[in-house]
Amino acid sequence: MTLTFTVSNASRRRLISRFLACICAAAVPACVAPGGEDPAGAEQADTITAGVADGGSTASAEPPDSEFVDTPLGPVHQSCVHGVGDGATIDASDRVTMRDGTSVHFGPCKFQPRARLGLNAARAMSGSRNGGVVPVTDGWAEFDAAFAPGNAWGYDWINGLTGTWQVPLAPRQYTNQTVFLFNGAEPSDGSAIIQPVLQYGTSRAGGGNFWSMAAWYLASSGNVFFSTLQRVNVGDTIQGSMFASNCSSSGACTWAISAFNGSVGTSLNVGAGETFRWVPKGVLEVYRITNCNKLPTEGDTGATFSNTHVYMPGPNVFNFNDATSSMPWSGTTMAEGCSFGVIDTADGVQLFWD
Which residues neighbour 347 within 8 Å (Cβ) at sequence distance 6 or greater? Predict the structure, then answer.
């Protein structure tokens, strides 16, 4: 077990700097007032939302911050964030087929996210960006991640990831902050991410002063898709998994992404054009955390991700080989304050804070 703290001296990492609160307006029905619950949060994700089919937003000028909404990927323009319900399928052209067979196509998002967050963390880890310490207020606070190594069969991409983590205690103080805990996978260039996500607070998917979970996909087109948000309880064990099928030799696959707590689940199917090589096996991401009491109450173990298994193909694309022990895992702390820390373990990671 290795205790790893990676903190640089600069506070200038633009990709983590986010200061947008979730706007509670008619255009953003999933939001709720601070301290309140949204009993319809899960149902609001059952139909495609907030998008313009076949072309995205028609705005030409850079939109105001008020049009950007919270996602596990940071603030994204509301026209590019789509609730597609449970079990929907998104193909490589961003055509969504709902569980009932109806479909709609979305053109590329016309607006960049306010910051690329963990989508550029892969680039930072590969050395193409300088790291930096940022305030705890917004972004990835800490994570443990690795690039898939080239294996004996010549593959350098993953085709599966599983892991479990326990729902922590609620924060001591709730004033509309948002906390995300997840594992996931990205291409090397950080252009996309697939992830089963546990959240406290609100996001574009809904939520409130409670824990909930959903599956998310940010496509390289800039569109963001999420499944039905499901409420969960403190102490539940979340099983997050992503498995690929129908893979090409270059790693373009169809992914089944799911989160399950033993009684309810939520999922997306993604026919991704991206190849996923960078794996964060445990991430704490936070927004509007102005003091440590707004983080989940740590207890004895913070957030523990365990039973982690990363799979790679070989000798053929339809084979699954457990590559967890060969991954060069590295723990990284990116936020100041609250005594953040990362402990890499043989089968997961422990994330700590005050």
Answer: 306, 307, 308, 324
